[in-house]
Amino acid sequence: MMHRPLVVAALLLALSTAACGGRPASDGRRPLSHRDSVRIAHRAHRDSIRALRRNMEGRRDSLKAAALAEASKPRLVDTLQYTALMDSLANGDTTGRWPVKSAPYPYEGAILPYHRVVAYYGNLYSKKMGVLGEYPPDTLWQKLRSEVAAWQKADPATPVVPAIHYICTTAQGWPGRDSLWRLRMPKKQIDSALAIAAMGDALVFLDIQVALSSVQAEVPVIEEYLKLPHVHLAIDPEFMMHGGKKPGSVIGSMDASQINWCARYLQKIVQDNNLPPKMLVIHRFTTNMVKNSADIKPLPEVQIIMDMDGWGSPRLKRSTYNWCIWREPVQFTGFKLFYKNDLKQEPHRMLTPEEVLRLSPKPIYIQYQ
To answer: Do strands 182-184 and 160-171 pair parallel, antiparallel, or not at all (unpaired)?
Structure first.
């Protein structure tokens, strides 16, 4: 039995043909028969069903692609939990500076403020640049694990993660072939730093001292490492020189625009490689080292840490922290402890984790040199 829609279509086509007197006799073709009309109507119906199926399949594929795209989009952290943790880091500050309200919420996977980072700093070629160059890896990790445990005991509510903070571009006392007064570490040395970090499942910070070069020239050199999810960036304004001055002859400086360039560079790496947020450490122990700090812009993909980098007595270090870090809030804060230089002034001792945690805001990044 013929389907009713096909019969109706065939009858309508036949009636239309009859009403118009059939096809013109001059075209040399015979009028359509009833059978031809039914065949044409059936073919049209079949083609319309196929087209509908293709449209439905295309729409289903589009919806599936849209769902996958939506699922792959980065999501912000739980804002209530994040706000509570940031309020805790402010440590009772009542000035309105802390926590920094203008900083954006980070995307999921952010390290801060959910963890405190405790890092060992230095260069594998030099015993004078920090603890990394002073000890073999096994001894180094014994000491670092001891510090991690001390910080975990001092603040049990904040999990502590270890880190290796490696200076991969160092300011030099000689100009070099390109007269930029900086030396880039060979990849095998950077790989060694990453291997040491892997011994304790640690994060890695690659530190750049640009001297007479620029962040735009030096940061891209280590991009292959920054694409790794556990590798982060640090920059040192002390050794960004201006006017052709030799590194170490004066304290260098860096403007917010250069820091923002680094943050945007990291942001693109995070976005292009679907990575968790990166951390960007900026060392500071004078106000002039970082210019226009109010213009520094943290990003959902990049967490910015202003690290108090000066050495001295406990009293001097607290004063420097309050003057350079507390007064000019950016996002997160760090604090460096020196195994040797902090002992030079009375009372010839380092600050303890408990003492550092009394600062407002509490440093969330701790570095040992």
So the answer is: antiparallel
